[in-house]
Amino acid sequence: MKSKRLAVTNSGPLIHLAKAGLLKLLNLYETVVPLEVKHEVVSVGKEKGYGDALQVEEEITKGQIKVIEVEASRKLVELTKHAGIHRVEMKVILYALRNGAVALLDDDAARSFARSLGVEVRGSLGLLLEGLKKHVITYSNALEGLDKLSEIMYLSSDIYKEVLSKIKEIAEKTNKDETS
Known about the structure:
Blueprint: E1 6-9, H1 11-19, E2 30-34, H2 35-47, H3 51-61, E3 65-68, H4 74-82, H5 87-99, E4 102-104, H6 108-116, E5 121-122, H7 124-133, H8 139-152, H9 157-179
Parallel strand pairs: 1-2, 1-4, 2-3, 4-5
Helix pairs in contact: 1-3, 2-3, 7-8, 7-9, 8-9
């Protein structure tokens, strides 16, 4: 059996996928989170009464998401801060770079920075499409997921239309493959 690729996630995709009922998309990867991400999503989330914090905590408890520590020099933290990259995002990118992992990021600046370093990036929408392609979710789950994500995170109408088009394209291709 082919082993799963490694992915390291930031807070955004965890929160967005949990709120949209799509956390199972993280099972596409062997998923890890820096300790700081766990703190942001679970500890702070629980203090504020967010249900998604409990969902993420359960996935961590079950071992579906593993918590890691990422060491970074103070100088690197300062440099990336000047580039507009938050400390936690930098740790996600650094871990991905060091370990050949996919970085799961929804923030545009962090995504661009990661790509400039040669890091492969996926966001919540990319995971939605990948989940549909790999039959982790159905066509109707993908459509519903897109609608839920559009309520949770900012999506321009162009991005929404583009993802909707890709969902339909994947579904059509899947139907053709199944009937051939």
